[in-house]
Amino acid sequence: MMTTIKGVFAGGDIVRGPDTVIQAIADGKAAAIAIDKYLGGRGILNKGYEIKINPVYDDDEVVELGRYPLDMLELKRRRDSFDEVVLGYHKLTAMAESMRCLHCERR
């Protein structure tokens, strides 16, 4: 992904011309790995927190999935502070939670 100029990386439309978004994203990941290796890393991408996605069974039945648990402030920190207790969802968990409701038209 490095260009002919040392330390300059490129990908996506600038390299391939107009192409798919998926290919541009893949080029971005490949460039990130190449940049990390160039800077002395091992080329391992930080993919963030692992989230557990509830299984979905689609056999034309309406399946009700349970809610994902909200992140909560630790008990030790609740005792001596006025910090918010219910922290909400991590971004990826919120996206997974939003996918629970996409088949409302089947009711």
Structural write-up:
The chain has 107 residues and is mainly alpha-helical. It folds into two domains: 47 residues, no CATH class; 60 residues, no CATH class. 33% of the residues lie in helices and 5% in strands. It contains four helices and two strands. The protein has a two-stranded antiparallel sheet. The mean pLDDT is 80.
Task: Write the SSE topology.
Layout: H1 13-16, H2 21-38, E1 71-72, H3 75-79, E2 86-88, H4 91-98
Antiparallel strand pairs: 1-2
Order of helices and strands: HHEHEH
Mass-distribution shape:
flat
β-sheet strand percentage: under 5%
The residue ranges in which pLDDT falls below 50 over 5 or more consecutive positions are none
* Major sheet summary line: 2 strands, antiparallel
Count of discrete alpha- or pi-helical segments spanning 4 or more residues: 4
Q: Report the end-to-end length measured between terminal Cα atoms.
A: 49 Å
Count of individual beta strands:
2
Helicity, as a percent range: 25-40%
The spatial strand order of the largest sheet comes to 1-2
Radius of gyration, whole Å: 21 Å
How many domains is the backbone divided into? 2
Q: What would the average pLDDT be, to the nearest integer? A: 80
The class by helix and strand makeup works out as: mainly alpha
